[in-house]
DNA sequence: CCTCCCCAAGAAATCGATTACACCTCCGAT
DNA sequence: ATCGGAGGTGTAATCGATTTCTTGGGGAGG
């Protein structure tokens, strides 16, 4: 592949001039033409590796995503990618697969590659490596999940309004025994969702006792199913369940189906995170929709602010409730 | 951040020695210890950008995916990422969003970043840039979708057996008027699926006339819905439809539902690509499952073979049929 | 005791760009 | 006429690693 020296020779100028022309520094028509012609003829493309070494800017952002196969995170990644690209950055995606060790491994790799900034939707609570990121001076923004003790802005959704509305509807529909499936204590996101839901229910005179708070470290299908099974074995099983993740919700639904129970007749089901195909499930699922694409965009902007040394605060965007049949609503058209 | 010079000074050796120790070249116990100690104390990490410049190897692979929000490609990307990582490469993902222009843009960026190799699940037929990739000497492997005129190995699934089985079942279930929703003529994948399905049906005495071949350039939800609508307006509407993409299938299902038709009673529906939540749709969807993860793995291995100068052939892995209720099977447990 | 060889380690070139600095030329002002 | 400034261009330093070439010291063999 042709390099800048070849171009310089062909155009009869020095490499400095070529560089200047290409970076739009000193455009003297005549010289400029010759250089651009040479670039054309040789099909020259600047080597980004060399450029990055010299300028200490790679033009790449890193994104650590907790689980790429989870549709919520997929859409998030897609939005981040879009926004980064439109701002001239490319994106290196690392999929933690909900495994803290793998996440650390990936962060390490990204730091070694000298990405300009890092977005992390953290798996678990392992923050040792995140502390290193901060120490290394690499701009960091947390996404969707905050991590205590890490000094970095966090971009995420606020479920308060949606949960308040949900509690009201459940109460109005006559549900008396709500339950929640949530990430284990110690995960900030999980604790927050639990607290907000509980408070919202209390406002309508509904209690959320500990026996109807089910948690599982396995934030997947099987975890959701196991928790639902435990719920149904209670002397007074719940008549409305909020699953704080879409995969767990599917597991829960499997368990209900396996026991011959019907949604929403026997148990209402509500899911955190809306996904396009929720309209196609049986029954269509009521969801708490996070503003996914906006979160992605905001995260990129916040990160860029940090990269450029501008001040950057945390961002909180409102989630909203999307009522469908699974919580006892009339079918949507 | 500490660099190799700092380490050298601290250990009282030259940079060359540090480099050798770190790359396991000259292991003299005593010197080695001192260097490693210095590395520890300074928290030194080699700068991959500098290393890449010198060695002309970045240790990164590129993956162009036609649509990241399509669950099939998500799983594919996940598998590729896993495999690449386990082999010491990191992955830069570019999402073409089914737009050829964006795809070209991304390929350009990846080439400029001097990735070691490129995997492309191509959007559309635009192959001008792919030709450039080949010309640039960057190892290239096509994934899922072959591109005529591009001299690169292609890793994809073979639907013959699955389609043959499907045709047999449809015939046995008494379906007489099969139809297919497919990518427009000119896309190799679409044409192949059409030809295979038609041949398989013919073996059971079923015809697939052109009026029951619906295509749409929009490989998404709306495209699928439009085609299904046209089918249903035929004097003799189909009684079994194969959608060659999962998003198009959802669109088709929406149209059926909107018209008050029932699956599979009125129309049987079969989908290309299996997705975890197909068991949760109403009704559960019969699918032709591609060996997604194996495809991803194979693609990485094929690419690595090319990178290392070993010969690499195209790979064809068998897809298989997963019968569920939407094509008239008994409910699966 | 001298020579030769081998091996470890240092010095310096190199990868391909950007950029500080020096130089040269041309022009206008004093 | 001379000086100063400005603008364009070339020379060379630089980024941080790897790698080639060179050097020096120690051990073995004569």
What does this structure look like?
Two copies of one chain form a homodimer. In chain A, β8 (240-243), α11 (246-258) and β9 form a beta-alpha-beta unit. The first copy, chain A, is α/β, with parallel strands linked by helices and 333 residues long. Chain A has twelve helices and twelve strands. The model of chain A has no long low-confidence stretch (mean pLDDT 91). The N and C termini of chain A lie far apart (58 Å). Chain A folds into three domains: 4-46, lambda repressor-like DNA-binding domains (434 Repressor (Amino-terminal Domain), Orthogonal Bundle); 56-157 and 292-318, Response regulator (Rossmann fold, 3-Layer(aba) Sandwich), CATH 3.40.50.2300; 158-291 and 321-327, Rossmann fold (3-Layer(aba) Sandwich), CATH 3.40.50.2300. The structure holds a DNA duplex (30 and 30 nucleotides). Chains A, B: It comes from Streptomyces kronopolitis. Chains A, B: Keywords: DNA-binding, Repressor, Transcription, Transcription regulation. Chains A, B: Residues 2-55 form the HTH lacI-type domain. Chains A, B: This is LacI family transcriptional regulator.
Secondary structure blueprint with pairings:
The structure is a homodimer of 333-residue chains.
Chain A: H1 4-11, H2 15-22, H3 29-42, H4 48-55, E1 60-65, H5 71-86, E2 90-95, H6 100-112, E3 117-120, H7 128-136, E4 140-143, E5 154-158, H8 160-172, E6 178-182, H9 188-202, E7 213-215, H10 221-232, E8 240-243, H11 246-258, E9 268-272, E10 286-289, H12 292-307, E11 315-318, E12 320-322
Parallel strand pairs in A: 1-2, 1-3, 3-4, 4-5, 5-11, 6-7, 6-8, 8-9, 9-10
Antiparallel strand pairs in A: 10-12
The structure holds a DNA duplex (30 and 30 nucleotides).
